[in-house]
Design brief:
By secondary structure, the chain is an all-beta fold. It is built from no helices and 21 strands. Strand 1 and strand 2 form a beta hairpin. The protein is globular.
Amino acid sequence: MKTNYEYMNPIVIQRADPWVYKHTDGYYYFVASVPAYNRIEIRRAKTIQGLGFARPRTVWLKHNEGEMSKLIWAPELHFINNKWYVYFAATDTEELDENGMFTHRMYVIENDSENPMSPNWIEKGQVKTNMETFSLDATTFQHNDLLYYVWAQKDPEIKGNSNIYIAEMENPWTIKGNPVMLTKPEFDWEIRGFWVNEGPAILKKHDRIFLTYSASATDENYCMGMLTAKSNANLLDPKSWIKSPQPVFQSNLENHQYGPGHNSFTVSEDGKEDILIYHCRDYTEIIGDPLYDPNRHTKAQAIHWNEDGTPNFGKPVPYTDL
């Protein structure tokens, strides 16, 4: 399927883990990790391209000490039951634990205003799971009148940094029942640098639910994998999900785009096309820890669809020459 949408890329510079949501008010809302990892900011615009020119508004600042005081990662903005929620990960130290892992947990803030840019955010606390371990990258989605929570977490009994889990939600800050693991790092493209499955995102289309995720270290090895389930399946049954054996989106040497991942999905300005939002770098020579390199930029490109109804993400598009 030919797409009518092309964007000047990157759409927002120095913003990793991007989340773009088009609301019923006609605005696109944008949140992402800021390089300082110290706050949550929201910006909005009537177009995807316009997000790069919109002024960000800080809606929440990290605590001075204790939980939620360090490394604020990967916020996502959701509108659930007429209230706004931002899910994010945070910790109380930049030091690694005895296993060489960060110590993040997942948190949520709530706003009952019509406009999420308003300052009326309140903390709802930690979203707890059945394990008190490194956890991050929460997303939510509604399907068949149920609210689901999907995230990445470390299981001490499984090799690697994180696996992807799903659970039903009792309310937007509390999960219900026992979490179910959907995927763990196992293929060679998921274990380069680090054994990682993280950054889940949901795309519903053609009577299927596509769950993309990111794998491997956050340098040029970073890439996207995908799980697929039928819309009428039991989403809490791991057997309902089919895992693609190859990455669905990865570095492209020809276009000088490296480590695409931690994506989200939105729709085009006319609502007719699905748009992939992701971060990417245009170089591989990173000085120091890739985590602290600020040049993961937010990019956007339209999704093509294969004849069998599956998404074809293509290749990371090159930067636009202006």
